TrEMBL record:
It comes from the Bacteria. It catalyses: a UDP-3-O-[(3R)-3-hydroxyacyl]-N-acetyl-alpha-D-glucosamine + H2O = a UDP-3-O-[(3R)-3-hydroxyacyl]-alpha-D-glucosamine + acetate; a (3R)-hydroxyacyl-[ACP] = a (2E)-enoyl-[ACP] + H2O. CDD domains: FabZ. Its EC number is 4.2.1.59, 3.5.1.108. It comes from Hymenobacter cellulosilyticus. InterPro entries: FabA_FabZ (IPR013114), FabZ (IPR010084), HotDog_dom_sf (IPR029069), Ribosomal_Su5_D2-typ_SF (IPR020568), UDP-acyl_GlcNac_deAcase (IPR004463), UDP-acyl_GlcNac_deAcase_C (IPR011334), UDP-acyl_N-AcGlcN_deAcase_N (IPR015870). The active site is at H288 (proton donor), H366. This is Multifunctional fusion protein. The lineage of its organism: Bacteria, Pseudomonadati, Bacteroidota, Cytophagia, Cytophagales. One of its GO terms (biological process) is lipid A biosynthetic process. Involved in unsaturated fatty acids biosynthesis. Catalyzes the dehydration of short chain beta-hydroxyacyl-ACPs and long chain saturated and unsaturated beta-hydroxyacyl-ACPs. Gene3D superfamilies: Hotdog Thioesterase, lpxc deacetylase, domain 1, lpxc deacetylase, domain 2. One of its GO terms (cellular component) is cytoplasm.
Amino acid sequence: MNDKQHTIKAPVTVSGIGLHTGVSANMTFCPAPVNHGFKFQRIDLPGQPVVDADVDNVVDLSRGTTIEQNGARVNTVEHTLAALVGLQIDNVMIQLDGPEPPIMDGSSYEFIKAIMEVGLEEQNALRNYFEIPEEIRFVDNGRAVEIAALPLNDYRLTVMVDYNSPVLGSQHASLTDISHFTAEISSSRTFCFLHELEALYKSNLIKGGDLSNAIVVVDRVVSDEELTELATMLGKPKVAVKKEGILNNVDLRYKNEPARHKLLDLVGDLALVGRPLKGQILAARPGHAANVAFAKKIKKKMMEANTSPVPSYDPNREPVMDINQIMQVLPHRYPFLLIDKVIHLDSTTVTSIKNVTINEPFFTGHYPGNPVFPGVLQVEAMAQTGGILVLNTVPDPENYTPYFIGIENCRFRKMVKPGDTIIFRCQLLSPIKRGIAKMKGQAFVNGKVVMEAEMSAAIVRKEA
């Protein structure tokens, strides 16, 4: 799985008809900055409102997942979102000039194909994974649905479907590596049963449905008269039933294509939690309603975890900036360069690491019998961390120098000793104005706050 966030290199457009609305639309995937996430923009509406791809914005689950915000609605978002998750993309603005993404061939493959024509771009920020901390379970006894998420340092999904149908039978599909989504899952098309088709049509749904973009499973004997009525409904001169129990002459791409498509839907619906996931997802008979209810449970757990102020640090992950990259930005040098790497950096927040060792020169005279990392150097290390943040706001940081100009409400909570690893986090308290930044800084050791302060810094252009 990717460590860094990704967007796309250039805008790319797909066009087609919406499955349920029957309205033609152009959908353009556009590059987006770090921590932007997935957002849809209805450019056909006044003010071009934006709709966040968020589970709290789900308003309808009639055979697809529909989101709404700021007076704008986007229907059937799951195939689009599944494509982005499958490509491990984090930040995209999806501009749409209609109410629904094009159904294309009923899968996610055409979206992936278009995106890969322009390619992906790595961004200078770590992916903000939500790692499932403990078992999360959703059960709907009335529909015999059960979905569980288990802790795992990866993202794997297994889906089982059983429709009590002699044609479809029981099926299962698994995705053991998200990088295999394109090859193994993305081309699996949407499907429905023949007995559902007429009900969907009468419910004013599947206006854009076509035998070329959906699999219709024939689970009973059908008379010639019914086939004629179906042909009229679908606007076709003639329809037939193949021996596999599939309407017309559509060939299945996989024997378990329906189960694979259910897994595709699950990937897309779970994208609505707003962060990439790490965990093992096991789902029995999932559907959009269950997927969204489950996503809400995951998001609730995520929000509870966010109440903890302690940044996570995995030393095995590649940093956003190593010591050589830091030295390209900050003017400080040994023995006064006091941070070792940056593990997170966006427009408002930065997190750095300081490994405290007994070999540092100040320990020779600073409490030599009981070595303690000096508080004034903790402040300096935090200031250097904040300097990285403010320099990140200009396009040419090499031409600027950050200066520490003020400190307020500084408190030292615990002693820091050799062998400790300090995590520094600085966050802007307000937008930078006239080159002056005000930040809230905290330092953590072993999950405990050891120091905190409010700091002011200025960035000054170097003289030529």
